[in-house]
Design a protein that fits this description.
The chain is mainly α and 448 residues long. It has 14 helices and two strands.
Length: 448
């Protein structure tokens, strides 16, 4: 898998991603401490609101930026967004009011919503070979998982010698180094395409392509399945470990590390697995696995009300490990689907649509996990999320047919016979790899 790092451009972009992620991880720790300094016991409410603002920024801003990203100089745009994020992070240590946290978080996450999909849409152009791109997706998944493990440990080590305010400087440095690394490489030029229509048409283009493509409609349903499994871990780990089991902060970190470890195992295994099996089969199996793990956990908890911690604790660690495995196996191949579902000039808009729609799923599952976890026994919360996960799989099966890959036979009654797209075609029907674009606005009905 590491052989793909021999590509100089990708190697530096991957390093930029890692450094920016570490900076963001330090920001997460510092922001929690800042919220506690300003709000005391209400810090959880402040952080919850900040998390909701983050998701709203992701959902609202990404499609707008995606509409115009392909028309802008890619390299300059990425550097500018890194510099904007660095400038905003530089202001955070000087915050003195809670509302200021909310404003700065919205601005910072809006810049991230502009940067991340554009960055992700660049990688397929840097690595045109699908096998290399698959390895890059697995490396990206590993980077996210390692960040979740390393950043808290790095922050803890730094806090022994510096104030938490200085952690923000690590965030600033991360974004500045990321900008420098992007500056140091030559990126493929985005295809310049003149688009008809107004701002609304351009802003919604990515979402329209996404929702008109069967495999991407299936991906959206699988995004919900993955968000259901992930939200249970992120929201309820501390509730279960400290509230139900009466354990400490170290055990919370260990449980989250198990989830990350499972995700890394899947990321390492996926490149070879995807060489032998289609994406659809792997992703569906992983989503069903997620639902099954949640269902088994629900059944176990419903019959173990009086079980000792010595029984529940190992079961929780194993469950979190398996959830991480399934979560990563659903999420990691998504870039391959996006890559083959749009022309190069539309990829920024389609990646932005995925970024926004997937985070909309999290915007639903985050509060749902919190509300159900507080109102119901944990066994019923697991059961509810198992049902949500499996229902999402059923929707994906319905909207993503198994035979939609390969050349698709379709007609062009709307085009004149001498149109360049019909050159060499007898009549107006032909077959080719199908993507939604200006000449193909709807997916053709299956024949037979």
């Amino acid at each position: 898998m590491l052989a793909v790092l021999a590509n100089r451009t990708y190697g530096r972009l991957f390093l930029a991603q890692i450094i920016a992620l570490l900076g963001t991880g330090l920001l997460t720790v510092a922001l929690g401490l800042l919220a506690f300094a300003l709000a005391g016991d209400s810090a959880g409410t402040v952080l919850g609101t900040a998390l909701a603002i983050k998701m709203i920024a992701y959902v609202a801003v990404a499609p707008v930026v995606g509409a115009f990203a392909a028309q802008l100089p890619r390299k300059a745009f990425l550097i500018a967004m890194d510099l904007v994020r660095a400038a905003i992070a530089l202001l955070l240590p000087f915050v003195s009011e809670i509302w200021q946290i909310y404003v700065l978080i919205f601005l910072l996450q809006s810049a991230s919503a502009a940067f991340t999909p554009t960055f992700q849409a660049t990688i397929p152009d840097v690595l045109p070979d699908e096998a290399d791109y698959t390895r890059a997706l697995s490396l990206s998944r590993l980077a996210y998982d390692l960040e979740s493990l390393i950043s808290p440990m790095l922050a803890a080590a730094l806090l022994t010698v510096i104030s938490y305010h200085w952690l923000f400087s690590g965030t600033v440095a991360g974004f500045l180094v990321s900008a420098a690394l992007v500056l140091s490489v030559k990126l493929p030029v985005s295809p310049a395409v003149a688009r008809e229509g107004g701002i609304y048409d351009r802003t919604t283009r990515g979402v329209r392509i996404y929702l008109a493509t069967p495999r991407l409609r299936g991906l959206l349903a699988l995004n919900m399945a993955a968000a259901a499994g992930g939200a249970m871990v992120i929201v309820n780990t501390v509730v279960f470990v400290k509230g139900r089991l009466g354990l400490g902060d170290g055990q919370v970190a260990l449980a989250l590390a198990c989830f990350g470890s499972g995700s890394m195992v899947a990321a390492l295994a996926l490149p070879r697995l995807l060489e032998r099996l289609p994406d659809r089969r792997v992703m569906f199996a992983a989503a069903i696995f997620l639902g099954g793990v949640l269902a088994v956990a629900a059944a176990f908890l419903s019959g173990s009300v009086e079980s000792p911690v010595s029984t529940l604790w190992p079961g929780l660690l194993a469950t979190w490990l398996l959830l991480g495995l399934g979560y990563s196996a659903v999420q990691t191949p998504s870039g391959r689907l996006l890559r083959r579902s749009a022309h190069a000039e539309d990829r920024p808009a389609v990646f932005a649509a995925q970024f926004a729609l997937s985070h909309a799923c999290w915007l639903i599952t985050y509060p749902l996990a919190g509300w159900l976890g507080a109102a119901l026994p944990m066994s019923l919360t697991f059961a509810a999320f198992a049902l949500l996960t499996l229902a999402s799989v059923l929707v994906a099966v319905r909207v993503w047919p198994s035979d939609e890959l390969g050349d698709v036979v379709h007609g062009h009654d709307d085009l004149p016979a001498d149109h360049p797209h019909l050159a060499g075609v007898d009549g107006n029907r032909h077959a080719h790899a199908f993507v939604i674009d200006d000449l193909h606005r709807e997916w053709p009905e299956r024949v037979g």
